[in-house]
């Protein structure tokens, strides 16, 4: 009896201590969030990491001391000067990572947080918004067909799932161009007391896009300009900040390499993995392919992404055959993917299996590419996913060939020329450790001076 009472007492004490720790942690997290002038939660199907980086650049150049966090191809924390550091994980990523980022990086001088949504399931998205980020501005970049298992089969259902991150009494910004989906997002926003702002890409000029040395879309830039307008940041400062921002690892930079005597344009589109984004990107890039070049698409299928493998197998004959002369399969599901393409009308002689069924060496892959290129010039396009053994070999090979032309994002983020106009404000903030109201007001006056030019 005594032993049972002692055990019950120990459990009670442990539970109370655990509850106290949780309570104090939540209070500390909320205090860090409440000190911020601006909290932006970036959600959507395509372009979340890119938009997170662009918005952080806008805020930094607008004078905000800003911390950002991306989740995409390589999870990173981007500090107030634009310098980056990778997120080190001991296991699989979880949404609790967002709390750790706030605890470690939102210090007393930080004024703005831009954070990419990690959650896919609507319940987790809502939890992320209501308890972890509590944004006053949420961005839904677009509504596309992806993650249907968790978010719904139709575009309307996916729009509703993404709406779980809309703030209460805040602002929703979207570049979604289909009016019926945008109106659905508007109704969902109004139900939470928020208003919708449409980031119209027609307001972004070709001259605005020339500041990017990689493939960028006007829709993403339009979101940055919309946020700048909302926060009183000049359009010029917003564009300058976006041009300076370091792109995500999965960005498409076009480079031409010599492969066994053939000139191969390498197009790493692995981060684009939904139908609409891939079609849009290929239609945009086609004009930049060398005349008469043989175009080869790589379907890079991860074993845990069976739905995507099925989607791209259907896309090749139905949507991509006008662009792709040949298709190479990497990774898993090769038999199923090949059969689906043939059933859709794509000729068997145009399909070449070099994935898990073959386990090829790098030299076998390169020899196949050389053989398929009819003439001097070829285009090699990586799609669907990033991580398979074959894709990683190929990516590393092109990385080595790049030499001095290779862009290392972590090194790029340290370049002095990318430092924002508000960096001096950060230095000033660092010598004001007291964090009084007068200090905060003075810091905001400095930021306004930055925006006033």
UniProtKB/TrEMBL annotation:
Highest taxon of the lineage: Bacteria
Residue span, Mur ligase central domain: 44-197
Residues covered by region (Disordered): 414-453
Biased composition (Basic and acidic residues): 441-453
Pfam families xrefs: Mur_ligase_M
Species whose genome carries this gene: Luteipulveratus flavus
Protein name as annotated: Poly-gamma-glutamate synthase PgsB
């Amino acid at each position: 009896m005594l032993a049972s009472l002692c055990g019950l007492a120990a459990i009670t004490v442990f539970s109370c201590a655990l509850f106290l720790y949780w309570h104090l942690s939540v209070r500390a997290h909320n205090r860090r969030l409440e000190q911020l002038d601006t909290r932006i939660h970036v959600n959507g199907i395509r372009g979340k990491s890119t938009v997170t980086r662009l918005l952080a650049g806008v805020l930094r150049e607008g004078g905000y001391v800003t911390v950002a966090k991306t989740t995409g191809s390589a999870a990173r924390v981007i500090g107030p000067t634009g310098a980056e550091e990778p997120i080190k994980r001991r296991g699989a990523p979880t949404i609790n990572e967002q709390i750790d980022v706030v605890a470690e990086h939102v210090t007393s001088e930080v004024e703005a947080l831009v954070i990419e949504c990690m959650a896919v399931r609507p319940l987790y998205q809502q939890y992320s918004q209501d308890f972890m980020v509590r944004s006053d501005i949420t961005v839904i970049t677009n509504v596309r067909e992806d993650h249907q298992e968790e978010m719904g089969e139709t575009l309307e259902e996916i729009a509703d799932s993404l709406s779980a991150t809309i703030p209460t009494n805040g602002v929703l910004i979207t570049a979604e161009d289909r009016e019926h989906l945008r109106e659905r997002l508007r109704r969902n926003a109004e139900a939470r007391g928020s208003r919708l702002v449409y980031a119209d890409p027609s307001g972004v000029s070709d001259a605005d896009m020339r500041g990017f040395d990689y493939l960028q879309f006007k829709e993403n830039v339009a979101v940055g300009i919309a946020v700048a307008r909302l926060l009183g940041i000049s359009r010029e400062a917003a564009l300058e900040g976006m041009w300076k921002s370091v792109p995500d690892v999965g960005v498409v930079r076009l480079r031409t390499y010599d492969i066994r005597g053939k000139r191969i344009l390498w197009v790493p589109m692995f981060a684009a993995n939904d139908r609409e984004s891939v079609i849009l990107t290929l239609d945009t890039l086609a004009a930049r392919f060398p005349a008469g070049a043989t175009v080869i698409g790589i379907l890079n299928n991860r074993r845990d992404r069976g739905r995507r493998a099925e989607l791209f197998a259907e896309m090749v004959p139905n949507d991509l055959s006008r662009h792709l002369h040949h298709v190479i399969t990497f990774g898993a599901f090769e038999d199923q993917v090949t059969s689906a393409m043939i059933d859709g009308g794509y000729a068997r002689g145009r399909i070449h299996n070099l994935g898990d069924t073959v386990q090829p060496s790098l030299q076998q892959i390169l020899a196949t590419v050389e053989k398929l290129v009819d003439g001097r010039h070829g285009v090699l396009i990586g799609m669907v996913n990033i991580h398979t053994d074959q894709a990683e070999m190929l990516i590393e090979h092109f990385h080595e060939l790049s030499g001095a032309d290779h862009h290392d994002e972590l090194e790029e983020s340290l370049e002095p020329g990318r430092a924002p106009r508000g960096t001096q404000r950060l230095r000033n903030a660092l010598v004001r450790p007291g964090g009084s109201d007068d200090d905060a007001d003075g810091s905001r006056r400095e930021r306004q001076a930055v925006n006033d030019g």
